[in-house]
Amino acid sequence: MKQNKLRLALFAAYLSIPLAASAQFTFSGPASYAPGNRPDGIAFADFNGDGLADMAVSSDAPDKVVVFLNTGSGAFGAGVAYQMGNGTGPDDLAAADIDGDGDMDIAVTLHNVNSVRFLINNGAGAFSLGANVGTGANPIGIDTADLNGDGRPDFAVANRDGNSVSVLLNQGGTFSSTSYAVNLDVRGVGIGDLDGDGDMDIAASNHDSRNVSTLFNNGAGVFTRGADLSVGASVRPESLRVQDLNADGRADIAVAVNGNGQNFLTVFLSQGTGFTGPFNYNTGGVDPAHLALADLDCDGDADAVVANETSNQLAVMANNGAGIFGAPMMLSTGSQPEDVEAADLDGDGDPEIGIANQSSNTVFVYKNETCTNNVILPTAFTVTRGALQSGNLSDLFDSDDAYVNVEARRPTEIAAASVEIVVEGTSPTETPSSLTLTVEMATSGAPTLMRVEAFNFQTGTWVTVDERTGQGTDTSIQVSLSNPAQFVETGTGAVRVRIGVHDRGVTYISWGGRFDLVRWTIG
């Protein structure tokens, strides 16, 4: 069932810093999922190779990681639980290809036993327990990146009671662990190139010391303590994120900060040899504790979404491109929102928001509908082979249970036992910087060849962009087209895709193909 749209707007506002961002956000939902008691961490990644982001959630009552696979429309099926062991205390999560086999694995901090446990993916979104690597005391935060330039993902871990950051270097399935002292009560950790020298550095938020520590990489995954950045004498930092917020090629630091009635998104902007800041932006709620950074309005820069833990609200804040954030738009959460993450869950090019509500034992997912101008929907379709049995153009607009169903016109003849439709749309620009095609389809009958083609207007030819076999299952195909302007017609902005399935030498009395959502996303 499609949810009614909850349209919420964020209008321009001015903070103490001039030129604040102005944007309008639109979200629908939330959809609610039940991962078990006391959910804490969230990670989004494509775990089963279908091109769609799935969801992993940690829960410590009982101690487990629950994996929800995306059903193809940004919604999730039933969760599968992986037990971590009684009393281990699973907390924060990160997803990465740990073993180098091409699929996404999971790392989870176990804060009660001072370690990180790895869950290894079989490629289909099912996991087995991997290595358990020691950290400092009470690890509660984790981030991942290649820290030593060997092409394998490594990890940085925030050790709350150890007052340290552990660096776990991936050695091809095994890990070395080195801890670096920072300051008191480490609440969060983030990885990024803070000094612009091409390797990945680390920032850690120290709650009791009221500051952020920086650790600089020598390029080989060995770190030197840099300057501590004070968030102010009357507030304390919670979690943080590291990302380039002002497009200067250097990673900046964003921190959730609270204390003494003050509730801020605090930003430090990297200058290469140091930082400017803190710049404080009111989050509109009480006790901001967690945050995520993502381009929520499709303007090319990272916006912020902050979880206000006590007032049970999310603050969505637009970046003006210079690392300056506008007034918050508020979204409701469940009780005690913890980790918040953002990822494109439905393939339309803009990221959705996921939030773990610890005390109400739910995860909320808000669908992002801000960037509708970036999505091209079908305006016409034509059945070029086979016969239309049911469905219409509107059935191709949304991913749901309404399919365009086309059957073979003469199913007893091998040569004719195929179905095919052409779907057309109109792009608002003839020179997109990117063009992503998403097709969801289902087949019936024996194993079939499924083919997706895009029309190249410069050469006047159909170009195969995806081809695979399948049987009786929904299939989501998402492909980014190279040289995107070639697939947009000059003068009309037309875009065209041809999708079909072909019976490979076996005849059936009744055989056909079902086609669901079709759309293009432009950049």
What does this structure look like?
The chain starts with 26 loop residues before the first strand and ends with a strand. The protein folds into 2 domains: 27-368, Integrin alpha, N-terminal (Methylamine Dehydrogenase, Chain H, 7 Propeller), CATH 2.130.10.130; 375-522, Jelly Rolls. 0% of the residues lie in helices and 52% in strands. Residues 1-22 and 505-510 have low confidence and may be disordered. The protein is mainly beta and 523 residues long. The protein has strands spanning 27-33, 37-45, 54-61, 63-68, 80-83, 90-96, 105-110, 115-121, 127-134, 139-145, 154-159, 164-170, 175-181, 186-192, 201-206, 211-217, 223-230, 236-243, 252-259, 262-270, 275-282, 288-294, 303-308, 313-317, 329-332, 337-343, 352-357, 362-368, 375-376, 380-385, 387-390, 404-407, 418-426, 435-443, 448-456, 461-470, 474-480, 494-503, 512-522. The strands form 9 sheets. Strands 29, 31, 32, 34, 37 and 39 form a 6-stranded antiparallel β-sheet that branches. It has a 5-stranded antiparallel β-sheet with strand order 30-33-38-35-36, with no helix packed on it. A 4-stranded antiparallel β-sheet has the order 1-28-27-26, with no helix packed on it. It contains no helices and 39 strands. Strand 14 and strand 15 form a beta hairpin.
Q: Oligomer, anyone?
A: single chain
Just name the CATH architecture of the largest domain: 7 Propeller
SS elements, strand count? 39
Q: What is the CATH superfamily label of the largest domain? A: Integrin alpha, N-terminal
Number of helices: 0
Report on the biggest sheet: 6 strands, antiparallel
Determine and state the CATH class of the largest domain: Mainly Beta
Residue-averaged pLDDT? 88
> What number of structural domains do the residues give?
2
Shape label: globular
Helicity level: under 10%
- List low-pLDDT spans: 1-22, 505-510
- Beta content comes to over 45%
CATH fold-level label of the largest domain: Methylamine Dehydrogenase, Chain H
Radius of gyration: 24 Å
